[in-house]
Design goal:
Elements: E1 2-8, E2 11-18, E3 23-31, H1 34-43, E4 47-48, H2 50-62, E5 67-73, E6 86-89
Parallel strand pairs: 4-6
Antiparallel strand pairs: 1-2, 1-5, 2-3, 5-6
């Protein structure tokens, strides 16, 4: 499971990445406020460390990347579910 963090006119955007079609899906939510953005992710039970999320914001803010892929890391033979996956910034 993968999601995209990017910046658009409405602020930071969180979108689903369709791995099969290799397309960025529609916006799930957006915010200019980083704390509001983080809280929304945690409310969704999106498991990512604050360190990784801050790293993703920094990459977008500095222009190092125009978007950041947040991909799930899960155990072998484990169902790919949002509530159980741990997300990291994809290299």
């Amino acid at each position: 499971m993968k999601f995209i963090l990017m910046m658009e006119e409405d602020g930071y955007e969180f979108r689903y990445w369709d791995d099969v079609a290799e397309e960025v899906g529609s916006t799930i939510f957006s915010s200019w406020n980083k704390n509001e953005f983080k809280n929304k992710l945690f409310d969704m039970d999106f498991h990512i460390s604050k360190k990784n999320l801050n790293r993703a914001f920094e990459m977008v803010d500095t222009g190092e990347r125009s978007f950041v892929i947040l991909s799930s890391k899960n155990k072998p033979n484990h169902l790919d579910t949002l509530h159980e996956d741990i997300f990291e910034v994809e290299p």
